[in-house]
């Protein structure tokens, strides 16, 4: 490479021209590009073995770092310049004729600065505008060459860099994170055979079966057209009007009204590819697959009252959580599982695998774990990376292919198309975060914002003047579509219609509801009640309840009662009165409780309330024990700053009852020390703090004198004390027994919430 660099003319002051590390100019017509620009050693060595996969990427290391380094800018120690590199002498004053005179048109420095500023915003995404991203890697457990030739799955331990963006769907770019909504879960794999985008959600089904309906769905759920309300909410007339007229959405509505739609963290939600895809091996044989991401930390959600309050106190709740987990080294991690099945199996299923409103129960096709993804690096710049990243359902690599799902077909068009207006032209693939690690060579030229400088006069194929380059890769290396058999009756010709099984809108909605725990069922009913109570037109509410009767009488009755609809309206006539008997009537895997996770406290936030005069030693013990488990234990004071303890020490509260209210924490420690407790009792925030922790079923450790706070907050302390330690999530200790109480407290925390305490309506 050095010899080539010396021989070829290139600009030594621009050592990293687009696509060529080291700034080496390509030889005209040459094909000497390496097959992969992944840094050597991207398949990590067995030296770092772990019990799961045999290999592990070094912490904080990620193969996209080097390629992106060529565009990273660090201004430390640098002089301020214009965009033309001209040094700026004065960045405070515009150029004027005399100090009190008019500003001059010739002030190119002012004009450049203001002009750039005027254009600093791009259109937000039409859906999924609000999002947060992270870099990471995917590591393959074992070679999957039997079913796919896709690059990330070719070798045990192979590591592929990824960029992931999580998002809400309805709200605008600056809207709250904890809205009741679907979460986007989009993964860009920078494979050594091109970029593969798995653009999924945290829910495995969708509202509609055909892309034809997508604009209507989005128009209906977005803020209403006349007054642009409500923001980041589906609880309004137009959404429920549409979905109550469209029973195919019933299954999805069950998921969206469940706690899945208010996750605790991006690190505690599942991800799904939703559609049926294909995997294709080197022999051209294909199987169907569904993609599932399962969080190692378990699936955990918020409760609705908590989500509403968080949206006021910290609208960036999920963004902050993701950022802080990664900064703290508590990297979010997910296991990739595949449901693999054949066309022959698919033909026997009671549902159609091309229908995005249906799942394949795991009891029917079990999950095969194939790798893990770790998010270990925060972006350097939100706009350059998270905002400009362009995911496209059309981006697949050899070894991955589409099914005929009509929803997917529309997506294959929509994503590339939308980037052209969002990112300002057809060259968005050259924006660094979107640029593949695999080399790009073709005859697509020009267009707005073109970065690459193509050499030579040949921009067509076939050619002889450039030795036929770039040349077609052929079937062995290139992307080849699966020559799939069309399952439809060919004699039908062109139709605008659906297969019959698509018309079964209720069987799987029922399956989902029946598979939930009683608490989850209650939450679903309460969410329907809340959302429909915001609908102003009674006929829409009634139509929705009429539709729910086809999915679950129990649910419809509960929702109807909550809305004062009595008697219930007759069930909506179903499109398919006698659907095929389902294989599975209950699927425990559909409950959030089925995936409690590794029980780790990593990244969990614990508040330790403090005031001048609390007992310092038990607080120090609690903080130390929690931090050792990877939890974030924060001292929340009646004010911030230093304060003396009863035992002659000094504590430094880093947040206050006012700026970090109780619902922002996963658990609570109440201190001992009569004077400090009295000070806490004087502050109304303390009681709100405790009430919220109690109401949201979180784990509370009460040490010594703080029992008085529990009493004052109106909590049923005597009831809780009579239970064995920890079963209600309420743990009591006197100062001498803090160590053992802490063990109970942390064990109770790992169970996340204690729904036995939940009441509707809440007593407190
Ligand atoms: Fe979509 C964005 C996921 C159906 C059209 N979609 C978008 C994002 C995610 C999804 C995660 C955000 C990507 C990012 O972070 O930049 N969308 C889905 C899933 C669907 C789905 C899982 C159903 C299975 N989407 C869907 C349909 C269409 C679109 C049927 C159109 C026919 N989606 C878009 C879009 C967006 C988008 C308009 C907006 C911004 C963007 O693409 O880049 O093209």
Automatic annotation (TrEMBL):
Its cofactor is heme. It is an enzyme of class 1 (oxidoreductase). The active site is at 128, 201. The keyword Zinc does not apply. GO terms for biological process: hydrogen peroxide catabolic process; response to oxidative stress. Keywords: Heme, Hydrogen peroxide, Iron, Metal-binding, Oxidoreductase, Peroxidase. One of its GO terms (cellular component) is cytosol. One of its GO terms (molecular function) is catalase activity. Transmembrane segments: none annotated. Residues 81-469 form the Catalase core domain. Heme binds at residues 125, 165, 214, 411, 415, 422. Residues 39-53 have a biased composition (Polar residues). PROSITE patterns: CATALASE_2, CATALASE_3. It comes from the Bacteria. Its EC number is 1.11.1.6. It catalyses: 2 H2O2 = O2 + 2 H2O. PANTHER family: CATALASE, CATALASE-B. Belongs to the catalase family. HPII subfamily. Decomposes hydrogen peroxide into water and oxygen; serves to protect cells from the toxic effects of hydrogen peroxide. This is Catalase.
């Amino acid at each position: 490479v050095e010899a080539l660099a010396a021989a070829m003319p290139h600009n030594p002051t621009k050592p990293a021209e687009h696509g060529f590390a080291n700034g080496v100019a390509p030889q005209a017509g040459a094909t000497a590009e390496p097959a992969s620009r992944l840094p050597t050693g991207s398949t990590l060595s067995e030296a770092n073995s772990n019990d799961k996969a045999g290999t592990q990427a070094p912490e904080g290391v990620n193969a996209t770092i080097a390629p992106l380094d060529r565009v990273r800018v660090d201004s430390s120690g640098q002089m301020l310049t214009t965009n033309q590199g001209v040094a700026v002498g004065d960045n405070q004053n515009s150029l004027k004729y005399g100090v009190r005179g008019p500003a001059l048109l010739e002030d190119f420095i002012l004009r450049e600065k203001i002009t750039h500023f005027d254009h600093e915003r791009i259109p937000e995404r039409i859906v999924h505008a609000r999002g947060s991203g992270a870099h990471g890697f995917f590591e393959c457990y074992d070679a999957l060459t039997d079913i796919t030739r896709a690059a990330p799955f070719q070798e045990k331990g192979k590591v592929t860099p990824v960029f992931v963006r999580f998002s809400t769907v309805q709200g605008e770019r600056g809207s709250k994170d904890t809205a009741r909504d679907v979460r986007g879960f989009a993964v860009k794999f920078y494979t050594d055979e091109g970029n593969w985008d798995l653009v999924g959600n945290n829910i495995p089904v969708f509202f509609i079966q055909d892309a034809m309906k997508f604009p209507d769905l989005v128009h209906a759920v977005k803020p209403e057209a006349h007054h642009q309300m409500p923001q980041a909410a589906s609880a309004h007339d137009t959404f429920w009007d549409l979905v109550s007229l469209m029973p195919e959405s019933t299954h999805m509505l069950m998921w969206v009204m469940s706690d899945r739609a208010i996750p605790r963290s991006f690190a505690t939600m599942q991800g799904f590819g939703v559609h049926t895809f294909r995997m294709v091996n080197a022999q051209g044989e294909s199987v169907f697959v569904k993609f599932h991401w399962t969080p190692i930390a378990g699936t955990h959600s918020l409760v609705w009252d908590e989500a509403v309050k968080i949206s006021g106190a910290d609208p960036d709740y999920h963004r902050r959580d993701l950022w802080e987990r990664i900064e703290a080294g508590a990297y979010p991690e997910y296991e990739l599982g595949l449901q693999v099945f054949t066309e022959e199996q698919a033909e026997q299923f009671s549902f159609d695998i091309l229908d995005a409103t249906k799942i394949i129960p795991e009891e029917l096709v079990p999950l095969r774990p194939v790798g893990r993804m770790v998010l270990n690096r925060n972006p350097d710049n939100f706009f350059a990376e998270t905002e400009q990243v362009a995911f496209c359902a059309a981006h697949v690599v050899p070894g991955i292919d589409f099914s005929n799902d009509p929803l997917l077909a529309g997506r294959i068009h929509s994503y590339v198309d939308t980037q052209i207006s969002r990112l300002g032209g057809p060259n968005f693939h050259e924006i660094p975060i979107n640029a593949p690690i695999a080399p790009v060579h073709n005859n697509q030229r020009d267009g707005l914002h073109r970065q690459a400088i193509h050499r030579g006069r040949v921009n067509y194929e076939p050619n002889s003047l450039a030795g036929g380059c770039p040349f077609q890769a052929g079937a062995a290396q290139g992307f080849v579509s699966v020559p799939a058999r069309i399952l439809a009756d060919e004699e039908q010709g062109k139709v605008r219609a659906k297969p019959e099984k698509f018309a079964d809108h209720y069987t799987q909605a029922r399956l989902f509801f029946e598979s939930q725990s009683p608490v989850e069922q209650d939450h679903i009913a309460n969410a329907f009640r809340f959302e429909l109570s915001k609908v102003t037109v009674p006929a829409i509410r009634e139509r929705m309840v009429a539709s729910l009767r086809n999915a679950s009488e129990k649910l419809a009755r509960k929702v109807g009662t909550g809305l004062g609809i009595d008697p219930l309206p007759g069930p909506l006539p179903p499109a398919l009165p006698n659907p095929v008997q389902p294989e599975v009537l209950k699927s425990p895997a559909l409950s959030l409780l089925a995936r409690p996770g590794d029980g780790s406290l990593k990244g969990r936030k614990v508040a330790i309330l403090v005031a001048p005069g609390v007992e310092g030693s038990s607080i120090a013990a609690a903080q130390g024990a929690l931090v050792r488990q990877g939890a974030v234990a924060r001292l929340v004071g009646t004010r911030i700053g230093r304060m003396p303890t009863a035992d002659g020490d000094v504590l430094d509260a880093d947040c206050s009852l006012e700026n970090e209210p109780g619902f922002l924490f996963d658990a609570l420690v109440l201190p001992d020390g009569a004077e400090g407790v009295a000070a806490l009792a004087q502050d109304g925030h303390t009681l709100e703090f405790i009430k919220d922790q109690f109401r949201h079923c979180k784990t509370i450790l009460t040490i010594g004198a703080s029992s008085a706070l529990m009493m004052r907050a109106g909590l049923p302390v005597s009831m809780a004390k009579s239970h064995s330690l920890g079963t209600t999530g309420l743990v009591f200790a006197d100062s001498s027994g803090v160590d053992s109480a802490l063990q109970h407290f942390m064990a109770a925390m790992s169970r996340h919430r204690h729904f036995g305490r939940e009441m509707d309506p809440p007593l407190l």
